[in-house]
Amino acid sequence: MGLVALAVQYGHMRTAMNAGYASRSRNGMHDLLDLETALATADTLASLNEDLTYGAGISGPAARRAINAAQHAPECTGTIVNARQARALLENPSLTVYENPSAMLMCVYKPDRALCNRITEREAPRLDRGVPSCANTARTNDHANLMRQEAE
Ligand code: SF4
User: Fold this and answer.
1) SS3 content of the chain, % helix, strand, coil (to 5)
2) Which has the closest alpha carbon to 75: 46, 97, 37, 47?
3) Rg value, the chain, Cα
4) Is there a contact between 104 and 13 (Cβ–Cβ < 8 Å)?
5) What is the block-wise mean pLDDT of the chain (152 residues), using blocks of 10 residues?
6) Tell me, what's the pLDDT at 6?
7) How far is CA 48 from CA 14, 63, 142, in A?
8) What's the burial of 147, exposed, middle or buried (CB within 10 Å: 0-12/13-18/19+)?
9) 137 lines ligand 1 (CB under 6 A)
10) Is 84 helix (H, G, I), strand (E, B) or coil?
């Protein structure tokens, strides 16, 4: 139900939330965002793990980290049912892999390397402001094929 769309929009939404709800600590909307984002991340890990198992290739500066994260997919699948569990996943730097279909890549998020968050080390990437040369990028064969199709 819009999980991927929400994940893609997450960076922008988080900014809006922080601006509009700065005086409030974690509230229901933040919990919902965390939950939906963590579920999308778990789906991304599961899908990547399956692709790699069936021989898909992956490249890019963050490819090794993406492969390592995908190996944890079975531990994440079906285990996230509340906001606390969602935050545990999102706060684990070895698992934060975000599918970004509009940019045709994955963001294997490490705040100190993020070109979309140069000023502050935000907790989530700005997928809507991605920079192709970022060290957090990785591309599977599917992403590369999509790029080729777009270029034709
Ligand atoms: S610029 Fe880097 S950290 Fe930001 S969304 Fe793109 S890959 Fe992720």
Assistant:
1) 55, 10, 35
2) 46
3) 15
4) no
5) 51 49 56 85 94 96 98 90 91 91 92 83 79 95 92 88
6) 55
7) 25, 11, 11
8) middle
9) yes
10) helix
| Those residues with Cβ within 8 angstroms of residue 58's Cβ, 6 or more apart along the chain or in another chain | 48, 52, 66, 67, 138, 139, 140, 141
Query: How confident is the model at residue 22, as a pLDDT?
Result: 41
Ligand 1, atom 3, lies closest to the CA of 114
For residue 100, give both structure tokens.
């970004």
CA angle 92, 94, 96 (to 5 degrees): 70
Q: Which residues contact 121 (CB under 8 A, 6 or more apart)?
A: 111, 112, 114
Stated pTM of the model: 0.82
Q: Which amino acid is at 81?
A: V
Spacing, Cα 100 to ligand 1 middle (Å): 9
Q: State which ligand 1 atom lies nearest to the alpha carbon of 135.
A: 2
pLDDT at 18: 46
